[in-house]
Design a protein that fits this description.
The chain is built from 4 helices and no strands. It has one domain. With 133 residues, the chain is an all-alpha fold. It is elongated, with a radius of gyration of 16 Å.
């Protein structure tokens, strides 16, 4: 398996979209789903966790992946809270109160999953370097 390109090698516009706009907009989708469908919220949130791991894999090592996860998790949480405030409906999924705590929760989760992705990339690169091919 070949790892994804390093984040640092991508054009600046792609970096902004992947690290900034993507998590924020994805969080907003989850925030609107919070009031529309509990099942949809959980499905989309789970997909977001996979995104956190894969974004961490764009960095060499757990620390770099964790930093990316912290940023993405924070922006994701801001998106959830922002959409929740805009919709002004009763949520179908319980979130922390005050809602701003959601940003802390998603930041921690993003950090952990981003670190896992960075660690996975390091292991993959080490395995590839040791293989005779």
């Amino acid at each position: 398996m070949k790892p994804p390109p390093l984040f640092s090698t991508l054009p600046r516009s792609a970096q902004v979209q992947l690290a900034g706009l993507g998590p924020l907009l994805f969080g907003m989708v989850c925030g609107f789903l919070l009031e529309a469908t509990a099942g949809g919220y959980w499905v989309v949130s789970t997909v977001g966790l996979l995104g956190a791991v894969s974004s961490g894999m764009e960095h060499s090592g757990a620390p770099a992946g964790a930093r990316r996860g912290l940023l993405a998790g924070s922006l994701f949480g801001i998106g959830v809270v922002l959409a929740h405030v805009i919709a002004r409906e009763r949520e179908l999924v319980t979130i922390p109160h005050p809602a701003a705590l959601m940003i802390l929760v998603t930041s921690v989760i993003g950090t952990l999953f981003g670190a896992a992705g960075g660690a996975a990339r390091s292991k993959l690169e080490k395995r590839q370097a040791e293989s005779p091919n």
